[in-house]
Amino acid sequence: MKGKQQSQTLLVPCDVSAKRLDVFLHHEFPCVSRSTLARLVRDGHVLVNGQTVKPSHQPRQGEQITIAWPEPRPATPEPEPIPLDILYEDETLIVINKPAGLVVHPAAGVPSGTLVNALLYHCRGELSGIAGVARPGIVHRLDRDTSGLMVVAKNDAGHLALSRQFARRHVEKVYHAIVCGRLEPETGEISAPIARHPSHRKMMAVIDKGRPAITAYKTIETLQGATLVEAHPRTGRTHQIRVHFKHIGFPLVGDSSYGKRPNAKLSEETGYVAPRQMLHAQRISFVHPVTQQTLTFEAPWPPDFAEAVRRLRG
What is the pTM assigned to this prediction? Predict the structure, then answer.
């Protein structure tokens, strides 16, 4: 795995809201877990105005925070010769078009056959390690059954820069989705906080005390019993688009977790049964960490998404 030790300095802004240093750092670097950041603070890898502090230290405007990122450990997942649809690659990053059904990184019950295994094979281990040994290169994620564009980091400096763009909402993400029903209003914005579901731990839900989440959308085409939608997530919460459209009464076609009954009704009316949730990351735009040029990529609909649109046009 590639990556020399990185040192980085931040200034605490005037609008800081975090009450703890580890929380502030996690907001700045969401690719790194809060527990990992707290450990770095305790181990003296994080200095505030040149002094060691506790993870509970409250950041104050103007403080200088210096982080000495430790050398990453080698990745534990094994390289596997899994085909990748690569749209762009250089020494810093890779942009891929992920197929539906491919899990992003190893986890409980999925030890292999993931995007990470494919990337390790393709890059011969040359991936960033700052997100942890099980997730080399992974700056952001897509659900297993969501298709489309992802950007992957090949070194730690690139990973940190990309992660901060995501955290500061500087990355433009556009998704195409098919939702159950005739979407009304045709254009709008869903602003509803999201947190872990209180009784189903693998699901998320709109909860008053959840993290802020915003999704803008507009109708592309009204279909038979469904609507083709363009969605712009302003935040990046787990399952955000799926949860938000369920929240307003229009769950995604094929989403067995968040829309069983509406999908059963759609199948009865149209005879169409979707093989997965109809969600595709269609476009992504970000600033290259090295060249500072804005890069924009688009991915065409995969065959199953195109077939869903064709069938539901009637």
Answer: 0.79
